[in-house]
Amino acid sequence: MTSSAGTSLLRRTVETYWAAADARDWAAVEAALAEDVVYDLPQTRERIAGRAAFLRFNQEYPGDWRLRIVRIVAEGDQVVTWTHFTVGLEEMYGIAFFTGDAAGRITSQTDFWPESYEPPAGREHLVERY
Amino acid sequence: MTSSAGTSLLRRTVETYWAAADARDWAAVEAALAEDVVYDLPQTRERIAGRAAFLRFNQEYPGDWRLRIVRIVAEGDQVVTWTHFTVGLEEMYGIAFFTGDAAGRITSQTDFWPESYEPPAGREHLVERY
């Protein structure tokens, strides 16, 4: 398989995966995942190993969350997405680093959930707020 | 310019840019940036417009910060980096989404700074902590 074929394969999988998660189409979510997929949350130092556990984690995740992809960058067996989540009136961004196998299935997803914070003092002369 | 030439160009710029920032080589940092570069921090809703202001922001950033690239993903005129920063004994991750111009200079950088947090209850049956 050429590198560019690999790129489009995992990109397509990730796009399908996010659309399926948003639609609660769990069969399609499952099909996007390799059996030995590892889900990693560096901020909480949590790890979920295996498709069955990770699928259940997604199914049990509370709240009526909806998502859309803001940006996607794919190269070889890696894909990064910047997603926008809403849960009711709450909004947040998620960043996910994916790796894939030769069949284009997701072998790992590492998630970051950055939260809003107040800017530190001392740089008001350089920044504008929006 | 082909897409793959564009890819390697901006990737090389971003690698040079991070190495130069780590080394406080401000001339090399400046050379990596387009004049109209925009720096964006969605978490604080801060924006810095223009190379001069953004360079100064970096130069004035407090602390003896050091960085290394954990992962880099490049496609066309987009690059994403996951970096690991240390400031003394403090450690943190940064995620940066870059776009570039035809000359391979950085036209935008959007930064996320995810912080550690305690995992919510209710998923202990699926996760392991590390």
From TrEMBL, chains A, B:
The record's annotation in InterPro entries points to:
NTF2-like_dom_sf, SnoaL-like
- UniProt domain SnoaL-like: residue ranges: 14-107
Tell me the domain of life: Bacteria
Question: Could you list the residue ranges that cross the membrane?
Answer: none
The protein, known as? Nuclear transport factor 2 family protein
